[in-house]
């Protein structure tokens, strides 16, 4: 830090101004040095380091390193700000910290999901069975096709053997022949986006509105219908009753927020059930003014929902890099906006890793902030330290760490072992290759006080009374052998068992 302070142009000027006095006309000062003019009375120099009050003023070459060191464990801004800003200072330290955290690739990958967008409701039709919602429900490994009318809330349920497009078309034809062909069908993607279903929609004269994948909120009414049907199925299974009876009573019950039932909204009459009733209540009665009541009820729901929703809506441009949330592991991955869909809040995104083309709602998209290039920590940037003959290379990906290719003798223990040589006059008895274990170089063994050093054990048949310490910090530990050792065929020493001297 002291060396970088002395070599930094701004820090050198601060030291010079502190020692020789600030110039009388400070208006001529420009750049970063002008930032310190208002606080010059609080600047001091100690041991070659510049301080503002009690905070160390960091030279430009070390700022990136300190920022990455503070963010090493990827804590948030509030947790890092105090410990960094209370010890160090430079112009724009807080904004640099914000930008560094915001552009951190790890933090962007594991950041939280988006908050809810403001509710955007479907338009309410004024005529029954002009707009339908359709989806599948699964209960006890059995599939059901659920259809609901957006105006009357009338629900149709079909038990199906599979989810093929042929099965769906067959069920829809049964509904259309009873209630008429709708103008719009709101559906999921598979199998409703198949060529056969599009051909069926074109032949029968209705439009298909596909929601964004994995965003069931776009078709919230049919999701509500699926929940109602599943609740009926659970109760039917428990009571051993018929689902048709449950549907009959549901269709004859008033819709929440309205005084009319789905049957009255669709047929302008109530249905006869097992519940006792008179014939007068079954006479047709037109439900008028329902559109305004439904609109009022929808506005209430939107107002309540938007209290917990995020007001700001994100918009993206074609060609812009974005983060796309993986719907399975909730991580954020990098993609590029390919096109803007006709439906609101929907984009086509091409994933950069797999090159897949996905359609996603803005709830699964975030702005991508590329990492900023730090002038002090570009790749292969060398910071020269005067007290060392080597250069410490700091990589932009791992600031402050020693590069694997740096020529430090202690960084690679094996290199230290390979550099050792045994003097010619060493009193070493080599008995050939069969007894090579007599001169054993063990990298795994360590002396008690030298855990990081390599130790060479020279085991001789003759007594050795001296221990030689080598100049390259390798320790030669010589074991004295008073008596002739008994060895096995493999060369292992046979030692008598230790006994207690009682």
UniProtKB/TrEMBL annotation:
An example Gene Ontology biological process: DNA integration
E.C. numbers: 2.7.7.49
Annotated Integrase catalytic domain residues: 124-235
A GO molecular-function descriptor: nucleic acid binding
Enzyme type, top EC level: transferase
Any matching Pfam family: rve
Cited SUPFAM superfamilies: Ribonuclease H-like
Alphabetized InterPro entries for the sequence: Integrase_cat-core (IPR001584), Integrase_H2C2 (IPR041588), Retrovirus_Pol_polyprotein (IPR050951), RNaseH-like_sf (IPR012337), RNaseH_sf (IPR036397)
PANTHER family found in the cross-reference section: PROTEIN CBG26694 (PTHR37984), PROTEIN NYNRIN-LIKE (PTHR37984:SF5)
Record-given protein name: RNA-directed DNA polymerase
């Amino acid at each position: 830090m002291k060396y970088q302070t002395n070599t930094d142009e701004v820090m050198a000027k601060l030291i010079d101004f502190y020692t020789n006095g600030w110039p009388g006309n400070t208006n001529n000062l420009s750049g970063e040095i002008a930032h310190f003019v208002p606080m010059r009375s609080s600047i001091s120099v100690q041991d070659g380091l510049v301080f503002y009050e009690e905070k160390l003023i960091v030279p430009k070459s070390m700022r990136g390193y300190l920022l990455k060191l503070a963010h090493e464990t990827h804590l948030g801004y509030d947790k890092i700000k105090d410990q960094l800003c209370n010890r160090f200072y430079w112009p724009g330290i807080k904004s640099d910290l914000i930008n560094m955290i915001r552009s951190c690739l790890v933090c962007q990958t594991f950041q939280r999901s988006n908050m809810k967008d403001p509710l955007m409701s479907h338009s309410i039709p004024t005529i029954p069975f002009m707009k339908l919602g359709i989806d599948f429900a699964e209960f006890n490994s059995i599939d059901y096709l659920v259809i609901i009318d957006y105006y009357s809330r009338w629900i149709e349920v079909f038990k199906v053997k599979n989810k093929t497009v042929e099965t769906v078309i067959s069920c829809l034809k049964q509904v259309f022949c009873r209630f008429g062909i709708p103008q719009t069908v709101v559906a999921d993607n598979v199998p409703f986006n198949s060529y056969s279903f599009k051909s069926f929609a074109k032949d029968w004269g209705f439009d298909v509105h596909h929601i964004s994948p994995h965003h069931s909120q776009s078709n919230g009414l049919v999701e509500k219908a699926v929940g109602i049907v599943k609740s009926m199925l659970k109760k039917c299974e428990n009571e051993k009753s018929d689902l048709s009876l449950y549907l009959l009573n549901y269709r004859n019950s008033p819709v929440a927020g309205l005084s009319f039932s789905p049957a009255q909204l669709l047929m302008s009459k109530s249905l006869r059930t097992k519940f006792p009733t008179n014939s007068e209540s079954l006479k047709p009665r037109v439900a008028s003014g329902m559109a305004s009541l439904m609109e009022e009820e929808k506005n209430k729901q939107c107002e309540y929902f938007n209290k917990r929703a995020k007001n700001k809506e994100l918009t993206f441009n074609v060609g812009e890099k974005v983060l796309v949330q993986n719907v399975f592991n909730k991580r954020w991955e990098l993609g590029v906006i390919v096109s803007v869909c006709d439906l609101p809040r929907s984009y086509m995104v091409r994933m950069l890793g797999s090159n897949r083309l996905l359609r996603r709602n803005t709830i699964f998209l975030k702005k991508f902030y590329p990492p900023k290039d730090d002038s002090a920590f570009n790749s292969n940037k060398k910071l020269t330290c005067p007290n060392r003959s080597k250069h410490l290379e700091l990589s932009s990906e791992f600031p402050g760490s020693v590069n694997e290719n740096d020529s430090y003798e202690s960084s690679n223990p094996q290199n230290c072992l390979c550099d050792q040589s045994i003097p010619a006059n060493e009193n070493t008895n080599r008995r050939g290759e069969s007894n090579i274990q007599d001169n054993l170089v063990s990298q795994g063994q360590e002396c008690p006080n030298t855990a990081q050093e390599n130790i060479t054990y020279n085991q001789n048949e003759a007594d050795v009374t001296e221990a030689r310490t080598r100049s390259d910090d390798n320790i030669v530990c010589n074991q004295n052998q008073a008596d002739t050792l008994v060895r096995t065929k493999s060369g292992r020493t046979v030692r008598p068992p230790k006994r207690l001297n009682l």
